[in-house]
Design brief:
six-stranded antiparallel sheet; binds 2-amino-6-hydroxymethyl-7,8-dihydro-3H-pteridin-4-one; globular; two-stranded antiparallel sheet; binds magnesium ion
């Protein structure tokens, strides 16, 4: 069982909130996988390619008995199932699910790098992460997340919404 597995979710096309909620639920339904916590949902300005709709972003914490590549493949299947259509890099998407941390794993291959390389430069990933895991030690930087937030990070957050993707697990 791997604890402290974090995924960042984003949507900026169609019924954004619905895609985010379904994606989180589908992750929770994967074999040997439990949803542990959700951050609030944030409305954010598009980073990278600016001429597109605002995003909704959130981070979820899970635990799983799946291996890293198994989980990664399952997540890609959920993106496909939700009808994600590829337009162009950083372009509009119904749902984007990025694996940020897989416990203390440090892994690098052609299609998957964990910890996610860009996560710490994106406030729409780091801010929701800090909400649910301020003391988590970044497996590569070897420092708690709360010490990694700097003023140099481009600010994209417009609004923190008063809702999460699912209720907190009790016990
Ligand atoms: N994802 C991108 C590109 N730009 N901007 C925001 N605000 N949120 C995202 O999730 C996002 C983005 C590529 O994955
Ligand atoms: Mg992404
Ligand atoms: Mg992605």
């Amino acid at each position: 069982m791997t604890d402290n597995v974090f995924a960042a979710l984003g949507s900026n096309k169609g019924d954004k909130l619905k895609y985010m909620i379904i994606a989180a639920n589908e992750i929770g339904r994967l074999e040997g996988t439990e949803l542990v916590a959700s951050s609030s949902i944030y409305e954010t300005l598009p980073w990278g390619v600016k001429e597109q709709e605002n995003f909704l972003n959130a981070v979820i914490k899970i635990r799983t008995s799946l291996g890293l590549t198994e989980l990664f493949k399952s997540i890609k299947k959920i993106e496909d199932k939700l009808g994600r259509t590829f337009l162009f890099r950083w372009g509009p998407r119904e749902i984007d699910i990025d694996l940020i941390f897989f416990g203390s794993a440090v892994f690098d291959s052609e299609d998957l790098t964990v910890p996610h390389k860009e996560a710490l430069n994106r406030d729409f990933v780091l801010t929701p992460l800090l909400e649910i895991a301020p003391d988590f030690i970044h497996p590569a930087a070897k420092k708690p997340l709360k010490e990694l937030f700097t003023d140099a990070i481009e600010k994209t957050i417009i609004k923190k919404m008063d809702i999460k993707l699912f209720g907190e697990k009790v016990g």
